[in-house]
Amino acid sequence: MIRYLIRRLNLFLATSLILFIVMFIAVSKFPVDRIAALTGVQQPTAQQITRITQDYRLNDGQISQFIAYLQQRLDGDLGLSSTSQNLILDELTAVLPASFELGFFAGLIAVLFGIPLGVLASLSTNKITQHSIMAITLTGYSIPVFWLGLTLSLWFGVQLGWLPISGQINLLYEIDSVTGFLLIDTLLSDSKYALSAFLDALQHIILPAVTLAVLPFTVVVRITRSAMMTIMEETYIKAAEARGLHTSTIVMRHALPNAFIPVLKNLGLMLGAFASYAMVVEVIFSWPGVGAWLVSGIYQRDYTVIQGGILSVALLIIFLSILIEIMHTALNPISRKELYAAN
């Protein structure tokens, strides 16, 4: 197992190194001064030019420049935003929790509703139920996320007035940031309006989370159904049925835990698509996350924001993909057997 973890760590480092190489090459192609592209400083003084030239070794060769670029980025120096002149690292720290909160909430919705529907589709003998569930998932998979977000906003936000369609919380509430996650911070707040603020924040997250959850929801339903249909034909399931165990007991104790393994694997494979969908959703609902921040930087041609956003999102996808792969290997008996056999 230790060898496997070391290989996964090496994979993370190698993939991250390729990412930094691509970003370093892209920086040289930006249509701005090299110093502005690297640091975000628009009108540097002579002292700043000298310091930046030394820090990034701009008078040396490309390899030396890349090593200096890598050192600066690994030290947390992502430069300044050319628009706000704030540190990119500070802005990232401010917007990342909102994206994590939205992504977690959307993933939770997808799993909590997707797995039961997938199980129902696999066990039901009613053809109408099976076809209806699969038609819903196929429709959800085919709908463009921007159209879905705008439609939900129009229906539930504008016409019915049930849910807010923009922002993270009503501006009337002043909630001190403790964890960065607004739903948690509202509960931790000592304000007498804490519960009202929590309910308001919960209402604000429903529409963007549901919009973002549609894609993983359809994948969870289809993979769960396929896995359950295969598992229910296995010998150990037939043996459990022969012993007189109730169907619900067989499903919950024996079938469902094994069916969750391919679901976990496929969720890891779709992290890239999930992140791109999240950016669109954040723009539609004015959600103050990394996606909206990055798109705003692209519109404003803020090249340090673009670098910081791409690096943070890409590194998170790489890390989470490898982490899910490790979890899949740890939970899957077949993978563990192959792993120990290889060692």
Automatic annotation (TrEMBL):
The ABC transmembrane type-1 domain, residue ranges: 96-328
Residue ranges the record marks as coiled coil: none
Chief site of localization: membrane
Domain of life per record: Bacteria
Subcellular location field: Cell membrane
Membrane-spanning ranges: 9-27, 102-123, 135-156, 201-223, 267-285, 305-327
Keywords: Cell membrane, Membrane, Transmembrane, Transmembrane helix, Transport
Membrane topology: Multi-pass membrane protein
InterPro entries, per the entry: MetI-like (IPR000515), MetI-like_sf (IPR035906)
PROSITE patterns: ABC_TM1
Record's GO cellular component terms: plasma membrane
GO molecular function: dipeptide transmembrane transporter activity
Family classification: Belongs to the binding-protein-dependent transport system permease family. OppBC subfamily.
Name used for this protein in its record: Peptide ABC transporter permease
Organism encoding this protein: Shewanella colwelliana
